[in-house]
């Protein structure tokens, strides 16, 4: 099943993600070249949403691995169910089975706990594997990941080698907490997710909040674009825009110019630090509004 | 992964693509490598597959496809379009294809291909327009590396104030930044080795096993969790330090980027907390912002009062038991020496080590005679020169022992 670029763009949009043409190309290449896709970009530009939409598009399961400092193979790959194993040993104590048989029994599939990475390669139908914020994991884990992504097989000492039954579509995201290794970068397709331009942002608002008035959506998109140009500590992302749009729609605002009060009161949806809030004064908002609306 | 398929595909592309086209593509990959892209054989192979696929029917589709494949970092991503246009459409920039590997030629086209910003001529901003992060560590520009190394050695020993050539200055800045990163990597490695002694915590293991009828289901491990070394840097940005400030800012930017726990303050007549503006990964932008804040308002240095502000408002928050405070200053203080001594004493009680870096120590015949310096010295653990890169590098073993 190879979709064309246009079909991919349409499919992602149907899944609630308005993709630009370049991203659609990157997604097409993922299938064509069977490479993982590395997404970088500021927080809140919708990197994780890409994976979700991709799963929807392919009607596949989304398996998510959230990375953090100190994440190890036990938490990411597999773990034995020790409690059940010990129970099984106790239960067999009196039966007179020899030790080898018991060992073989307790180190079998039945006692294996799948963690995201193992789960992703053992599905019947290829799932979408999202490795979120891979830059937060340690360097060792990254090296291990690289090995898994090139061979798609893992060895479990007690059980032997597990080969992938299906190759998952892999999406990695990074926020630039730490510089990723060259090897991992080279292995992946790369796409930089930027803040959407005004038109695309308006389309995103309309896709996610179908009830909203189209003129208002465009106004909001222009306003957010103007605010992003200010020197802020935390630039509002797409999620913030959507919150704000939902709030304004909920308050029954139809035109920003008509209701500056509501605008001033709801702008907190966009500004998440005290510093930013004191920087974006009502006067500044009015000035920006005059420019964009 | 599917090696068999891939080989078959390459065979297929070999037939559908003419040899001229393949040569052309190989040339493009080489051009990208010359510009610092990390590309291997697998990428060339996949590029051929793209060229033979429906994606290559229109050039408008070919560009994003090759970009997704070849770019690996944000800066690659930004430069790709320009290189692509230059190569496939032959618009200017022919020089990139003729590169044969001498270091200076390596540097120049990269810079030209950068965003073309930074022509303002405002101080250091235009020497640092492109950050060569760790991604520059690829075999592709290995030859450039070797050329750079000997130059780097010379630079490392030169007093920063004697570096006049802007290119050398840019190189020194870069070295300072790389030094900071390397220091972090080595300090962390030492900590790991020490951490390796894991022991069973028997008492707690047995305690937890009670609920399982005495079988130790959950083993509890005892492990000393080392607190990472935290660096707090107080940087003197007064007029008398002006020859060194830009250089130290680069070093400090590297430190902030590499150490997870680092705080930076700049002072002249007053103290400013600048860690946040330095945390910008784009060195040029971070330092631009910083230099604005760091510009002295004239009227000399008040080290004592700046330290008092630090002790009063910041110390409790930023200093823990494993903090080294690094003061970078020439010790010329226009305030009262008594005040400075008093504040140094307070600071000494709080932190683990105080390192005072003084660029003047590198000068011949220097003796710490400035009154401020005299007053501060009794509380300083390490009084070290910091006029060139070598002296900064010499700090590392000291920090590792803390």
Give a nutshell description of this structure.
The complex is a heterodimer of chains A (293) and B (402). Chain A is built from 15 helices and 9 strands. Chain A is of the alpha/beta class.
The CATH class of the largest domain in chain B, by name, is Alpha Beta
Major sheet attributes of chain B:
6 strands, mixed
Q: Which range does the strand content of chain A fall in?
A: 5-15%
The name of the CATH architecture of the largest domain in chain B is: 3-Layer(aba) Sandwich
- What is the H/E string of chain B? HHHHHHHHHEHEEHEEHHHEHEHEHH
Number of strands of chain A: 9
Number of domains of chain B: 3
Largest sheet of chain A: 5 strands, parallel
Order of helices and strands of chain A: HHEHEHEHHEHEHEEEHEHHHHHH
Can you put this structure into words, describing what you see?
The complex is a heterodimer of chains A (293) and B (402). By secondary structure, chain A is α/β, with parallel strands linked by helices. Chain A has three domains: 5-73 and 115-192, P-loop containing nucleotide triphosphate hydrolases (Rossmann fold, 3-Layer(aba) Sandwich), CATH 3.40.50; 78-112, no CATH class; 198-292. Helices cover 49% and strands 13% of the residues of chain A. Chain A has 15 helices and nine strands. Chain A has helices at residues 5-14, 21-33, 47-57, 73-76, 82-91, 99-106, 116-121, 139-151, 182-187, 198-208, 214-229, 238-250, 260-266, 274-279, 282-292, and strands at residues 37-40, 62-66, 78-80, 112-114, 128-132, 153-156, 160-163, 169-174, 189-192. Chain A has a five-stranded parallel sheet. In chain A, a hairpin with a 3-residue loop joins strand 6 (153-156) and strand 7 (160-163). In chain A, helix 1 (5-14) crosses helix 3. Chain B has 402 residues and is an alpha/beta fold. Chain B has three domains: 3-113, no CATH class; 197-224, no CATH class; 230-401, 3-Layer(aba) Sandwich (Rossmann fold). In chain B, 54% of the residues lie in helices and 9% in strands. Chain B is built from 18 helices and eight strands. A six-stranded mixed sheet of chain B has the order 5-4-3-6-7-8, with helices on both faces. A two-stranded antiparallel sheet of chain B has the order 1-2. In chain B, helix 3 (41-52) runs antiparallel to helix 4, helix 7 (103-113) crosses helix 8 and helix 9 packs parallel to helix 11. Chain B starts with a helix and ends with a helix. Chain A binds chain B through residues 4-5, 21-22, 25-26, 28-29, 32-35, 37-38, 40, 82-83, 86, 90, 150-152, 167, 176, 179, 182, 185-186, 188-192, 233, and chain B through 1-2, 38-40, 42-43, 46, 49-50, 53-55, 61, 64-65, 67-69, 71-74, 76-77, 133-135, 137-138, 212, 215, 217, 276, 281.
